[in-house]
Amino acid sequence: MEPHGPRESPPWEGSSLPGVWPSSALGQAFSQILHQFAGQESRRGKARSAALEDLAALLEAKECDRLFEGSDASLRGMPEMLGQVAKALGKYAAPAEEPEGRGDRHSEVAEKAAAVALLFLQLLRKVEAAKNSLVCPAWKTSLRPLAGPIYVFAVTHSLEQPWTSPRSQEVAGQVLALLLQVTECSSVAGFLHGENEDEKGRFTVIMGLLKPDLNKDSWKNNPATKYVFSWTLQKVTRPWLSQHLERILPPSLLISDDYQTENKILGVHCLHHIVLNVPAADLLQYNRAQVLYHALFNHLYAREHHLIQAVLLCLLDLFPILEKALHWKGDGARPTTQCDEVLQLILTHMEPEHRLLLRRTYARNLPAFVKRLGILTARHLKRLERVIIGYLEVYDGPEEEARLKILETLKLVLQYTWPRVSCRLVVLLKALLKLICDVARDSSLTPESVKSALLEEATNCLILLDRCASGRVKGLLAKIPHSCEDSQVGNCIRRVQQLSEGAPCDAT
Fold first, then answer.
1. Where is this region: Disordered (predicted)?
2. CA 396, CA 392: separation in Å to the nearest integer?
3. 138: closest CA among 193, 199, 76?
4. What is the DSSP secondary structure assignment for residue 418, as one 8-state letter?
5. Cα(398)–Cα(451) distance, integer angstroms
6. 131 compared with 418, residue with greater pLDDT
7. Which of 77, 86, 122, 358 has CA atoms 20 to 30 A from the CA of 323?
């Protein structure tokens, strides 16, 4: 074997750390490479580059064909040695926290990752060759310490991130694909939780590798850790996730509690995945569901629409779990729920809100809250009335998402709370007629399909309103078609008169 660089001999010709690692020449060679990765700070750059060259040469050597032979007593402890080497390689290629948001070192990280990925491919091909050989039955045992560090590296660099390049993403993706092939897993999910009931997955190992970088003092040192954790978490679903709840809940709460909006959203997505894939009984134990609720509720005071959207979706899936702990005996008023608290806060924020993106986000989720509460929406009618009328008056852009969702909300409110609607007849009737007239006269860039949808929904609300008011709307609109010059407005009113039957609407 030819030495690389100006060194006098290859690293495996010397001795290093005797008694700790295997005493074979291969063991000494890998030990020396580990020593180079852990060298003094002043020499670390050159030493690590040299270590990469030495490792590449070592993996090409014929002696390495025996790495995964379980019969050679001199190679005992070699799997653990390879695991340490894999961890050192992953750390070498890991992105570091960038001061002041600078990305000058990202290209350097991508180059390192590409070089390390090629080494991992070499190593995995050795495992693949051993697996296909009848004389190497111990390849699974040898692969076990390698699989976790290689997976973390592959996920870190295969996703599109500031520290990756097309080249590094490509080779890291090849590493992940080969890792799944070697471990005989059909998917990443199978790799993590096991391909069958008898097989123990590697999710616990992966969480163990990530844990040192997922505490409150260290989780920002490596910007990739949170993405690896989130991506890995999303791959594990029911029924496998519940057994790992103690490992995944604290990091998810930690990430969601950050001051940066990006991290808050990432953490909320992790919490949402936990809510969807952990049984309610496990979440209710030790008041975990309440902890989740309060962590999410605090985010509702934020002004970032992406965060509000993520939080509201998570809360809507958390409410059924929280309500399992409530016991209503039917002998009094139903207790207010967390859904009531959230809806009250949302309506408070909606009234004065002027930012269109936030208005759309609130309006988009309002129908789901009304469906969730059903007839109990009557508790919030006064404020809902003000929000509905206020939002129907304001143009929302060409797509008119907010006004369409508010009309959907109004329809649900009329269906669920129809006995309380008649006293609000005049106010709601005026708002709907004003909307119909505004849309009919609209000369902006709003597409005709959107205008038609608005008119259709407003007409349906008028029909429901008439049924809730025992036909009074039809009487109030009787003279309008004769004096109305706009054909669209006239068509809407004639449709109300034709379809209204004067019967109270059913609260379904």
1. 1-20
2. 9
3. 76
4. G
5. 9
6. 418
7. 358
Write phi, then psi, for 398 (nearest 5 degrees).
Answer: -55, -35
Report helix angle 338-350 to 381-392, nearest 10. Answer: 40
The total number of structural domains that make up the chain = 1
Amino acid identity, position 219: W
Q: How far is CA 272 from CA 34, 231, 276, in A?
A: 40, 13, 6
CA distances from 485 to 174, 252, 477, 481, 506 (A): 68, 60, 15, 8, 34
Domain assignment of residue 173, given as a range: 46-95+106-184
- Cα separation, 388 vs 383, whole angstroms: 9
What integer pLDDT is reported at residue 153 of this predicted model? 96
Predicted confidence band of residue 39 (pLDDT cuts 50, 70, 90):
low
Kindly give, in sequence order, each residue whose CB lies less than 8 Å from that of residue 223, ignoring residues fewer than 6 positions away.
95, 97, 98, 163
**Is 64 within the bounds of a domain?**
yes
Give the pLDDT score at 328.
Answer: 66
The CA distance from 115 to 127, in Å, is 19
Per-residue pLDDT of 260-306, as tens digits, reads 999 999 999 999 999 999 999 999 999 999 999 999 999 999 999 99
Task: Compute the average pLDDT of residues 324-328.
Answer: 75
Q: How high is the pLDDT of residue 322?
A: 94
Structure tokens, 48: 């690590």
**Angle at Cα 239 formed by Cα 238 and Cα 240, nearest 5°?**
95
Higher pLDDT, 233 or 83: 233
Q: Is the dihedral of CA 225, 106, 55, 28 positive or negative?
A: negative
Q: If residue 60 lies in a helix (H) or strand (E), which one and from where to where?
A: helix 44-60
**Closest to 94 measured CA to CA, from 204, 226, 248:** 226
Average pLDDT of 25-53? Answer: 71
* Residue 29 belongs to some domain of the structure: no
Residues in the chain: 508
456 within some domain = no
Strand blocks (E) in 382-503: none
What distance in Å separates the CA atoms of residue 195 and residue 188, rounded to the nearest whole number? Answer: 10
Residue with tokens 């291969």: 26
**Is 256:270 a contact under the CB 8 Å cutoff?**
yes
Q: Is residue 354 part of a domain?
A: no
Residues 346-405: pLDDT tens digits?
A: 999 999 999 999 999 999 999 999 999 999 999 999 999 999 999 999 998 889 999 999
